[in-house]
Amino acid sequence: MALSAAELQKKHDMEGAPDPFAPLENHVEPYSKPVKQELDTDSHQAFPSLAPSAPAAKPITQSAWGASSGPRIKPTISKQPVFTDSFTLGTVELTTKDNKPVTLGEVIRQVMAKYKIKVEASGNQRGRQTTFHLKAESQRELDKAKRLLLALLSPIETLNVAAPTSAIPIIIGPKGATLKQIRDQTGVRIDIPPRDTVNGTANGHATGDDEDEEPSVQITVTGPKPLALEAVDLINQIIASKIYRSTQRIRDIPSHVLPFILARKNVYEAAAQGSELKLQSSQLEITASGEREAVHRAVDLIKADIAELSSDLTSLKLSLPKRQHRLLVGKDAQDIMAKSKCAVIVNLEDPSDEIAVWGHAVDLSSGLGAVMEQANSKYIHEFPLPGPQALSMQLLEYMNRISYPKTLSEKHVGVSIFVPSPVTIERAHSLVIDIVGDKPAVDVVVRQVSELIGKLIGATKEVSIDWLTHHVINGKHAKKIKQFYDIYNVLVYFPPESAERSSVLLVYDPFSQAASPSPDDKARSLDEVTKELLKMAKDAADVTSEALQVERHWHDSIIGWGGSKLDAIIGEDKALSIKFGLDAGDSATEDSILIRGASADVSRAAKEILQIVENAKNDQIVNSYSIEFDIDREYVGRVVGAQGAGIKKLRDQLGVSVDVSDDVDEKEIGKKKKTVHHKSKVKITGRKENVEDAQKRITGQIEKLADETSEIVQIPSKYHSGLIGQMGKYVIRLEEKYSVKITFPRQTAENGEGKTREQLKSDEVLIKGGKKGVAGAKAELLDAVEFEKESNNILKFTVPTRSVARILGKGGKSINEIKDTTDSQIDIDKFSNDQTNITVRGTKKAINAAKTAILAIADQVAEEISVTVPVESKYHRTLIGAGGQGLKDLVSRCGGGSDPRVLANLIRFPRQDEPSNEVRLRGEPAIVNKLKAELEKSVAMLRDRVVLAVEIPAAQHRALIGRGGQHLIELQDRTGAQIQFPGSRSYAQVGEPENAVDLGDIDAANIVKVTGPRAACEKAIDSLKASVKVAAPELVTSTIPVPLKYYNAISQQGQFFRNLRNFGVQVDQSIQAQKPEVPRRPTPSGTSSARIDEEEDADGPEVEWEVAPNYQNVEEGDSLWTLKARDQAGLERAEKLVHDAIEHAKGMSFVGFLTLPDRTTFPRIVGPKGANVIRVRNETGADIQVSRENNTIIIIGSENNIVAAKNAVMKLAVRPRQHD
């Protein structure tokens, strides 16, 4: 039998060989000798490999003989980007933008601009194919860019995958996680039909279910072809993982047998013999799921037990009060089974008091005793709900709405409360609540229920409002309905929409603190809410009904696929009710449709339904066009396709129906009639234009088939795997391009012929298709063979096994770098304990370069030596140092490198869980010998180490450590000792100090540990003691209240506090003033500016002068100033200054605003270094502030002082007279 591309790939051990086929766009160029050109070592086309290395970011499985047992020796090759990928496209489809064609360069620039990636494209002129090489800084960027590039350059195709219905949940995953992962990874669209649209479901009976008959679901994958194929492969992998699993159901198990089966669950699970098995029960069936063999064994055992128990069990019936039935179900029934090996069957919905006990005859007596014991094990109180049936149902609904039974059960442990079921409510004349438990606890619950019922009498009411308006009322008046509780203490409960009930329950909340015990108040509140609700209902809609008569076979057209059309008619508000057939009412027929809702919505829905029916009738007429024609019988199989794929494609794309039937002629040959098939009749039905298009496609396909031919090409079998490609992708692309079928031989038989339908020999390849396509495929196939001959060179050699770990590198990084750099394929196979075989494939230049790089690593490894140094484990942490800094310094002193990976293999300490004390050194002899000497020297110093302690006040630790540990590091370097302060990570690890007894009475927070040689420790201790500062004497303090309104006047922008600090006084303030220092300048009065020296000096400047009271709109209250001084004299002096400042601030009651025409006179007013301002301030006693932003000078003081200060300032501002 001929192999498909996928089967061929399984046959040949391939890992992504390069595309050997050079696709042709228009015609096949004659073969010519290639022109010698510069070699591109990065080109995947020039240096293909049968299995390109995985990206460096993805770790590979390490060798069994270790990949990290020595120092890393990097090959002497040029460094390449860590993340690379290559792919080849035979046909590049470019779209258009703004009616202009998009070039390949624009697409590449678009991808490079979006992601941090470098894209190189090279074209094969002879083969008309394009190879893309991608380099990125991260694997994530590389994958995203590759998907985008494929999406922009590949044609959009739609593929179908047939998946078993049982595999659909696994494909979708929890909350769609698996399906989303596939979509995100490939960027394609994946459509899975809804579950209710799948035709047929597996019945699951264990009585003969054939899992091969499980119905399948057609999953549609749409996207760029390479990405769509990738998504299909991922889905097929999930489906394949589902094959070994099975699920079977055993249904219709007799109710009296099921308890005995459930009791033997452990026996059935043990029958799985360690395989995965899960058993679940639901009603009268058991579901077994897990590994196929385990499910079959368990199901067979369950079926045998059901048959045996059905014939052996007998029953005994007895009557018990209905209230006691509740004690014989659920876990209680399981306890009876475990105790007596009998099952009790109880039907709580049956009004009868009869129960049945099932078991073997010898066990019935003990079963009966166990049932009676359990039935009388607890006290049961029947609490009848008061009032007529309507009131009882109102009380019951309210208790269910607030989960009152559950709340009571949680509050009173051991008490269970059972309310009537819906079936019981319909049958019973009175409603009863059963309360089960110990009598004292039950009595407490009964009292609480009685209290609630007493509060609910007269507190409930039902209002009839058409259920179709409930949604509108809730949406439009939700806020007002919530306010009913705040205003009237009334809760409003609308029934669920699915119930289609028009009764709305009103309850006067009995638990509210505002609840009134008066029946009149309850009734008044309920009536008010009723009026409001009825008004809302009247405003909501005018409900009406309309009946239509539409033939039943049109109902599906109205409902639509999955109810889509019906949902659109009803609308989002769902305020319409549309019922079909006999559900429309008592007098309805199968053709009836009843529409009920708001009058406007009913009219609209009726029109839409009638229009849908009219359109469906027209479509039936339009789609009734058909055409018939004959085709040769030999082409029917190719037209229909595998499993009807060809016909299905026409149906999906054109919406037509295609039927194929045979024309049979009976010819009499001799005395017998022989049936001869000459022609097959094809009938196509649908829209006229689609029918004609389908006929054109079929006839065109037959014309191509009539031109079909075949040819056998001689190709040595060793090149077959390279021509097929990974998963057959190269041969498939060639088949699609030329519309041919290419068959490679499968396995070789004893007679030397391949096991295929065409009886091919091992070196024969069959090409079948149209004459032109066969010729083109043959030419391209032969060109690919020449390419394989040139690039498929093989070189084998051996290396010492001990060097393999370094050749591979951690996670395969070294070997992958060699692969990427040389563009070769490298296989490593362990030959013996001493030697390992290495096989390199590629071009001659590539395999030689790879061999050189590998042997360079092997030669360097051969020169290494390995020694061990005994080091006690207690010194390991000290030698390694924080973050490995100790090892880095040690290697640096010995002339080693700083590469962390080399360092990790050069020195290896035992792990914490290893009992060994040996430290391994491995590397070049010179470095290893130096490291050994340095390590032994450091260990000797550590063995001579002592631990001493010294008392240092904790308050001074921070100062001794210094910022960033600067002081501590300097001290350690100077003394050669290590100092550990309390709280450090190593404080507890250094051990107890030798002089711990001498410091026994000292606070542990003040003890500093010093470690190292004794002389160094003593030196460090002396330095620490010398650095300890004598504690400062206690300060004397005093508190003075300062009014907040004087704060700014006293502080003088901080100058006052600076003066106090000059003689050693610090000030702590409880609060500071937040408002501005001076009031705002008053609004000018509008009068003309006056000149204060008009009589004396006619040349004086024009000014504005406004005076305002100070301390207006200031903060009230006091700020407590705490004065801290070194001695009493300084404190008393500070107190006097503060009191004097307060008195001075009291006299500064006015603020003057002096505005000059410009700032040209300000330098003269201020004087050198403010000398003039200081002089005026001292002479007048007023504070003067010269603004740097405007022309206004602010003067603060008493009314006389500010006038005097103003006059002094104006004298300074007047320019000197010019004398004649």
From TrEMBL:
Keyword presence, 4Fe-4S: no
PROSITE patterns: KH_TYPE_1
SMART domains with a match to the protein in the record: KH (SM00322)
K Homology domain boundaries: 155-240, 457-614, 623-703, 707-786, 791-859, 863-940, 944-1029, 1148-1214
Compositional bias (Acidic residues): 1093-1103
Residue span of region Disordered: 1-41, 191-216, 1071-1103
UniProt KW keywords: Repeat, RNA-binding
InterPro entries: KH_dom, KH_dom_type_1, KH_dom_type_1_sf
Cited Gene3D superfamilies: K Homology domain, type 1
GO molecular function annotations of the record: RNA binding
Protein name: K Homology domain-containing protein
Organism: Lentinula aciculospora
